[in-house]
Specification:
single chain, alpha/beta, Rossmann fold, formyl-coa transferase, domain 3, 2 domains, 7-stranded mixed beta sheet, 3-stranded antiparallel beta sheet, 12 strands, 38% helix, elongated
Length: 405
């Protein structure tokens, strides 16, 4: 069966995580995604982590399965080519993803003058157009101040995953396809502006965290590794392994208590406190300091292997703490599975597990992950196929330094 986005053409002029991950999601579901790259590559072209040969694993990972057209955007001819690519005709084309500023030659108004029904997704920092990256947005939203143990006081803890960038890529893909669907119904294009700051604020609002602090008049205190609002924390096994164990649902809690043989102790605690831990996950959180020692003792008495066998087939929600390398080479159900991440050879000759689409479509073969293009590898073919340029015109552009192959 054909990939769900087969036939769709998206032009991308973006760097770093949010814009390229939006294009990546679409490419891995079958869309043709054409990157407009500056000569020599954009500001993320050599970003860490790198291979021994100096190739960016970051860039390779975010640009798999795309085509690359290398253009000198400082030259008027180069800017015109970028505009023509973004606005090239076709009912399933005219979709443009960028993090360029709202004004200038890639503004929505400039592109709409060439193709009125163009859909432009513009990923921004702050709503007013000032720059931001995930880490500055995270800092401004207060997340680092409620991450980590209470002993840190006012010291912030930055997260290692660029949460808002990743969410912007996924949400941006959704918004882009929604606008494309609306265009098929109405014939009208539009610009979508997606500021990281708005996305972060909206997410905290959706989770009730903005309302929580406004109604309480104070920030939520740091919780360490405790799960807020239910039962959950890290526990150490008899063989020194650390497990994350969570009980949010009633079944998860019942099975945890049963498998660890804590029924009588928990019942006695419920009776003394006048609480029902099964019926209300909030009660498990409220009385976690009384519950934690019971679970600690039960976990401390068993090895990780014994607990894994005990939890098998139950509703207990748990996972071992591992390093990224341990996760990459593991072979159990927590492992990186070869079917989802086949070995792919990339630029420089390195081969490593490379993810395709994260979504699984039962009954269909996994959509291949592909590799990132070499910079400008598709320049001539794209200009010929999409813009209809002849070999002579392409040759002049190349000789004038407007494009690179």
């Amino acid at each position: 069966m054909a990939p769900p986005l087969k036939g769709l053409r998206i032009v991308e002029a973006a760097s770093f995580v949010a814009g390229p991950s939006c294009g990546l999601h679409c490419a891995q579901l079958g869309a043709e995604v054409i990157r407009i790259d500056t000569l020599g590559g954009g500001p993320d072209r050599r970003r860490w982590p790198k291979t021994a040969a100096g190739d960016s694993l970051y860039w390779q990972g975010l640009n798999k399965g795309k085509k690359s057209v290398a253009i000198d955007l400082r030259q008027p001819q180069g800017r015109e080519l970028a505009q023509r690519l973004a606005t090239a005709p076709g009912p399933d084309a005219g979709l443009f993803v960028t993090n360029f500023p709202p004004d200038g030659f890639l503004s929505h108004a400039a592109l709409a003058a060439l193709r009125p029904d163009i859909v432009t997704l513009r990923i921004m920092g702050w709503r007013d157009g000032t720059p931001a990256v995930d880490y500055t947005v995270n800092a401004a939203m207060g997340i680092p101040m409620m991450t980590g143990p209470a002993a840190l006081g006012d010291s912030p803890v930055n997260g290692v995953l660029p949460t808002w960038d990743l969410m912007a890529g996924a949400y941006g893909a959704f918004a882009l396809l929604a606008a494309h669907h609306a265009r098929r119904e109405t014939g009208a294009g539009r610009e979508i502006r997606l500021p990281l700051g708005d996305l972060a604020a909206a997410t905290l609002g959706h989770l009730g965290q903005l309302a929580e602090v406004l109604l309480a008049g104070a920030d939520r205190p740091r919780q360490g590794n405790d799960l807020f609002g239910a039962f959950g924390r890290d526990f150490v096994t008899a063989d020194g392994r650390r497990l994350m164990i969570v009980a949010i649902t009633a079944r998860q809690w019942r099975d945890l208590v049963r498998t660890l043989g804590l029924g009588d102790q928990v019942a006695a605690l419920e009776s003394s406190l006048g609480a029902s831990f099964t019926d209300d996950e909030g009660e498990r959180y409220r009385h976690r300091e009384a519950l934690f020692p019971l679970v600690e003792a039960a976990i401390d008495a068993r090895s990780e292997a014994e607990l894994a066998a005990l939890f098998e087939g139950t509703g207990v929600c748990w996972a071992p703490y591992r390093s990224v390398h341990e996760a990459a080479v593991a072979t159990d159900r927590f492992a990186v599975h070869a079917e989802a991440m086949p070995q792919v050879s990339h630029q420089g000759g390195d081969a490593y597990p490379t993810p395709g689409a994260a979504a699984d479509f039962p009954g269909e073969a996994p959509h291949p992950s592909g590799e990132a293009p070499r910079l400008g590898a598709d320049t001539e073919a794209v200009l010929a196929d999409i813009l209809g340029l002849g070999s002579s015109e392409i040759g002049h552009l190349r000789d004038d330094g407007v494009i690179a192959s």
